[in-house]
Each structure stands twice: as structure tokens, then as C-alpha cells.
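Can you give me the bound-state structure? Components:
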Amino acid sequence: MARTKQVNAQNNGSQPSSSKSNGTGVEKARSPSPDASDRPLGPLSVTVPAYEREEVKVNNANLTELKNACDDAVKRFLSRPELFKQQYLHTDIRLALGWLSVFVAAGTAFYGYKVEFEQSKPVVTIGLVLYIILTTLSTLYAYFVEGDTIFVGKRKTFSKRIITERITLSSSSPPLPKNTSCPSYSVSLQYVRSTNGGKTLLGRGRTTGAAEYSRFFDEAGVMDQPGFEKWVGGLVESAMDGKAA
Amino acid sequence: MFADEFKVFKRLGLRHLLLQVLSLVSSLTLALMLWHGLMIATNCESPVVVVLSESMEPAISRGDLLFLSNLASERYKTGDIVVYKIPGADTPIVHRVIERHDVPSTVDIRQYTKFAKVSKGTGRGSSSKLCGPSQLLLTKGDNNPVDDTELYRGLEWLEKGHIVGKVNGFLPYVGYVSIAMNGSSGLKYAVLGGLCLMVLL
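Here's the bound-state model for the whole set.
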């Protein structure tokens, strides 16, 4: 109970500043700026008790591990009960295609093992072609449709009317620019808020942000989760406010 | 020890587990499918074989890995090194073709292949009628004093149906791994176990 009261107070507290920035937002952005009074909870308003966190420690010389740790932190951060619900469409399609190709391969191999070679050739060829098609589809899907996306979230809130929000985050580790010595984590968000079953667009925002990995990982490779979450939360909230950056 | 793992999996969910298992299994299936692809492409039951005897020295030594092909349109020539399997014999044999006869499809090949046991062979020989004349071959190991007639178990000639494939190339010494693994089962399990560990870690 106490926690919800605190959250509402914070939200009300942030109203005047967001309506102020909304004014400039409208001038900059061509897309409609969301109405401040309608704005649902942003991620910075929902706190996480410290004892619930697990320490994240990675090898900070390995760029893949750093990026994966940041991606996982984003997913954990935005999937909390008060916030977005992760949409698993990309994952499910990749899983379905992958497991189907495994079963096709296993079936083909088993058939080839049981039946004598000359007789088995047509069926094995069909199985092989099917496997190649499925694997190609899965790879193309992951490369083109899914791309850099790490999180797709959806949320329905009710305040005066049912508001549906959809947020998509994609991240990458862009190559080192000449003046810095540390690689950075670049994240870009797309945010849409609508109502009336998706027919009325309330607001849209697009933000990108980049920060060096050394800002969130110390020498031992331990991740500063509150700091990271604050940075991502700020980006999400500015997307929710409709800033097109 | 496993309590930790279960906690992690419960938190991360079923999808995560499925993804992890998929990445493990898909490397296995890729290897399997590549092997079958090679089988279909070379039209050969066993496109890669290991040499066990020294009957083809100095051209091919024991422990060599051979790459075979057996395309339907293949015409074997004198001097080709082929791997053949006599029905009823345990292992395939790799020797060189020293005599070749092309029998046009107008002639019944069965006049030249004496024994009843060979009827399986002629069945396959007649299917290759579509690809032109069938062939009758005689082989001999380079290092053997006599030709292979003794090894044919009553056949006078080899036919295309008996041939597993023609040797297109080889890698020396690599086959010793397979020979060693087949020899002592302990080594086989050690190598398999090592491979599994490498994939997991």
C-alpha cells in the first residue's frame, strides 16, 4: 500500500516537468506528443528493493559478454510486474523453425540408417532439402526481421480509457570511434501509445542513447545495475514523453 | 549443486532452456546433415573410408583417408582406384582397375557373370542401363602379386553394382584415429567424451 502511494506521488511530482518538456517536444517532433496527464508509469517510478538483485559479474574483456549482460539487465528491468510484458514472437518463431529442422534432420538420419542406401535416396534428399530450407528461413528471419531487437514489450493500463503501449528496444556495440578507448553500448527505442484497440494513436517516441561500457562495469567486471537502470529508465521515459531524438 | 541451476532455470524460464538445448543439438544435426548431403552428392553409401591394408602401397598406405564418388554417369577406366564390396564379404576392398569391358545394353550381361549369387548385382547393373553400356571390371592391388579373382568369391568380373565408389583424393595418416578408436573401445569413449566436453564448455 505504502509503495503505491509513494509511486503516485512521484508520478504527480513529475507531471509539471514533463508538461514543460512536452512543449518543446511538440516543436521538435512531428509526431503527436502524448498527453501528459494520460502518461502511464515510467520505469524510473518503479523501484526495485536492493535485496532482490543478484550480482552480475562478467569478463570485462569480452565484448559479447558485456553486451549480453546489458541486454539481460534491460530485459529484467523492463519486465517487472508494473512495467511491460515481454513479447516472445521473435523467440518463438526461431525456436519453432530450429526445433522443426532438428526433428527433420533426426528423422532423415534415422530413415537413412534403417533403409538401404539406394532405396533411401529420394526420401533422404527430400529431408535434406527441407532441412536446408528451414535453416535458411531461420537465419534470414533472425538477420532481417529480428535484427538487433532485444526486447519487445506491451502494456495495457487503465486510466479514463484502456491505453495500450508497445515498446521495442534494439542494441548494438558499435565499432570504436577514434577518440575513445572504450567500446560503447548503443540502444535505440521505439515507443507507441494508442487506445481504442490500436485505432487511435496517442503518442509516439523514438530515442537512441549510447554510453561507454566502462560507465557500468568496474575493473572486476561487476555490473552497476542501479546506475545502468537509471540510464535506461531515463531513455525510456524520454521516449514515452515523445521526444524524437 | 543442482539447486542453483534449478533456480536459474526457473527464473529464466522454459524458453531460455529450449534455446540453450537447441543451440547444442543444432550443431549435431548440422554435422549429420552435412554427412548425408555428402552421401547424396557423391551418390555413395560411404563417401569417406579408411584404408586398413597395405595392398596398394606405395600409392595408398594403411591409415589413409579416401574420398569417394560414385556418380551414376561414371565410366570407370583402367587405372582408376576403386573401392568395391563383394556380397557376402565383411569389408570393402580398395584396389586398382586393370581390365575393363564395356558391354553395350543390347548384349545380356548375364552371360558373363556366372553365379546365382550375383543376381543381386545384375539387378543393379541393369538399372544402370539407362546410363549407357554396363561395365565389367577386373581389379588388382598394386602391392599384390596376383589379381583379385580369388577375392571375388566366385564372380568372374566386378560390376558397377558392386562398386562403392572411385577414389578422388586422399588425406594421409588421418585414418589412424579411426583405426585406433575401433581397436580399443576405451579410446573411443575417451575421444567422444572429450568432444562433448568441448561443446559444453
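A couple of observations. Residues 1-37 of chain A have pLDDT under 50 and may be disordered. The interface with chain B takes residues 88, 91-92, 94-95, 98-99, 101-102, 105-106, 108-109, 112, 117-118, 121, 124-125, 127-128, 131-132 of chain A (CB under 8 Å).
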